[in-house]
Design goal:
The protein is mainly alpha-helical. It has 2 domains: 5-52, no CATH class; 83-118. 65% of the residues lie in helices and 12% in strands. The protein has helices spanning 35-40, 44-52, 54-67, 69-88, 91-118, and strands spanning 5-7, 14-16, 20-22, 30-34. A hairpin with a 6-residue loop joins strand 1 (5-7) and strand 2 (14-16). The protein is elongated. The relative contact order is 0.06. The protein binds zinc ion. The site of zinc ion has 8 residues, from strand 4 and helix 1.
Length: 119
Protein backbone atom coordinates (compact mmCIF):
# COMPACT_ATOMS: atom_id res chain seq x y z
CA UNK A 1 0.00 0.00 0.00
CA UNK A 2 1.45 3.40 -0.91
CA UNK A 3 0.41 6.80 0.33
CA UNK A 4 -2.36 7.41 -2.17
CA UNK A 5 -4.25 4.18 -1.50
CA UNK A 6 -6.00 2.95 1.59
CA UNK A 7 -7.77 -0.23 2.64
CA UNK A 8 -11.37 0.24 3.67
CA UNK A 9 -11.85 -1.21 7.17
CA UNK A 10 -15.40 -2.15 6.26
CA UNK A 11 -15.27 -3.93 2.89
CA UNK A 12 -11.52 -4.64 3.01
CA UNK A 13 -10.87 -3.31 -0.50
CA UNK A 14 -7.82 -1.21 -1.19
CA UNK A 15 -8.81 1.96 -3.00
CA UNK A 16 -7.46 5.34 -3.94
CA UNK A 17 -7.81 7.94 -1.17
CA UNK A 18 -10.22 9.90 -3.39
CA UNK A 19 -12.66 7.03 -2.81
CA UNK A 20 -12.75 8.04 0.85
CA UNK A 21 -14.34 11.09 2.41
CA UNK A 22 -11.95 13.58 3.98
CA UNK A 23 -11.54 13.67 7.73
CA UNK A 24 -9.25 16.03 9.57
CA UNK A 25 -7.85 13.63 12.13
CA UNK A 26 -7.76 10.38 10.16
CA UNK A 27 -4.54 8.47 9.58
CA UNK A 28 -4.38 9.56 5.93
CA UNK A 29 -6.68 12.52 6.36
CA UNK A 30 -9.59 10.39 5.28
CA UNK A 31 -12.25 8.28 6.94
CA UNK A 32 -11.65 4.58 7.51
CA UNK A 33 -14.63 3.49 5.39
CA UNK A 34 -14.72 4.03 1.63
CA UNK A 35 -17.44 6.26 0.16
CA UNK A 36 -19.51 3.30 -0.94
CA UNK A 37 -19.49 1.72 2.52
CA UNK A 38 -20.12 5.06 4.13
CA UNK A 39 -23.14 5.72 1.93
CA UNK A 40 -24.39 2.19 2.51
CA UNK A 41 -24.33 2.85 6.25
CA UNK A 42 -26.26 6.09 6.03
CA UNK A 43 -29.28 4.65 4.20
CA UNK A 44 -32.49 4.01 6.16
CA UNK A 45 -31.68 0.30 6.19
CA UNK A 46 -28.34 0.91 7.83
CA UNK A 47 -29.67 1.18 11.36
CA UNK A 48 -31.59 -2.03 10.94
CA UNK A 49 -28.42 -3.73 9.73
CA UNK A 50 -26.43 -2.39 12.67
CA UNK A 51 -29.06 -3.59 15.09
CA UNK A 52 -29.19 -7.01 13.51
CA UNK A 53 -25.38 -7.30 13.65
CA UNK A 54 -24.72 -5.81 17.06
CA UNK A 55 -22.29 -8.51 18.13
CA UNK A 56 -20.26 -8.07 14.99
CA UNK A 57 -20.18 -4.31 15.33
CA UNK A 58 -19.12 -4.70 18.96
CA UNK A 59 -16.40 -7.22 18.08
CA UNK A 60 -15.03 -4.91 15.38
CA UNK A 61 -14.96 -2.02 17.81
CA UNK A 62 -13.27 -4.13 20.47
CA UNK A 63 -10.60 -5.32 18.04
CA UNK A 64 -9.97 -1.72 17.08
CA UNK A 65 -9.62 -0.67 20.71
CA UNK A 66 -7.15 -3.50 21.36
CA UNK A 67 -5.18 -2.81 18.20
CA UNK A 68 -4.79 0.87 19.06
CA UNK A 69 -4.20 0.46 22.80
CA UNK A 70 -0.43 0.98 22.55
CA UNK A 71 -0.91 4.07 20.40
CA UNK A 72 -3.32 5.53 22.88
CA UNK A 73 -0.96 4.77 25.77
CA UNK A 74 1.96 6.40 23.95
CA UNK A 75 -0.16 9.40 23.07
CA UNK A 76 -1.37 9.79 26.66
CA UNK A 77 2.19 9.52 27.91
CA UNK A 78 3.41 12.17 25.46
CA UNK A 79 0.58 14.49 26.44
CA UNK A 80 1.36 13.91 30.13
CA UNK A 81 5.05 14.62 29.64
CA UNK A 82 4.31 17.80 27.72
CA UNK A 83 1.92 18.92 30.44
CA UNK A 84 4.46 18.16 33.18
CA UNK A 85 7.25 19.95 31.30
CA UNK A 86 5.04 23.02 31.01
CA UNK A 87 4.13 22.85 34.71
CA UNK A 88 7.71 22.36 35.88
CA UNK A 89 8.93 25.25 33.74
CA UNK A 90 6.69 27.58 35.72
CA UNK A 91 7.51 27.67 39.49
CA UNK A 92 4.16 29.13 40.48
CA UNK A 93 2.26 26.57 38.45
CA UNK A 94 4.44 23.77 39.83
CA UNK A 95 3.74 24.82 43.43
CA UNK A 96 0.00 24.83 42.70
CA UNK A 97 0.30 21.44 41.04
CA UNK A 98 2.08 19.93 44.06
CA UNK A 99 -0.52 21.35 46.42
CA UNK A 100 -3.34 19.97 44.30
CA UNK A 101 -1.60 16.58 44.21
CA UNK A 102 -1.27 16.50 48.02
CA UNK A 103 -4.92 17.49 48.40
CA UNK A 104 -6.22 14.85 46.06
CA UNK A 105 -4.05 12.16 47.61
CA UNK A 106 -5.35 13.07 51.04
CA UNK A 107 -8.95 12.96 49.77
CA UNK A 108 -8.29 9.61 48.13
CA UNK A 109 -6.82 8.10 51.30
CA UNK A 110 -9.70 9.48 53.38
CA UNK A 111 -12.22 7.95 50.99
CA UNK A 112 -10.42 4.63 51.19
CA UNK A 113 -10.41 4.62 54.99
CA UNK A 114 -14.10 5.38 54.88
CA UNK A 115 -14.70 2.43 52.61
CA UNK A 116 -12.73 0.12 54.90
CA UNK A 117 -14.76 1.24 57.91
CA UNK A 118 -18.07 0.84 56.10
CA UNK A 119 -17.24 -2.59 54.77
ZN1 LIG B 1 -15.54 -0.06 1.67
Amino acid sequence: MNESTKTCTKCGETKHVSDFYAKERGKYGVMSWCKRCHLAMTTPNARAWQQAHRDRAYATHKRYRERTLDNRRAQNRRAYEQRMARIKANPELHARYLEHKRESQRAWRAARRHQAVDA
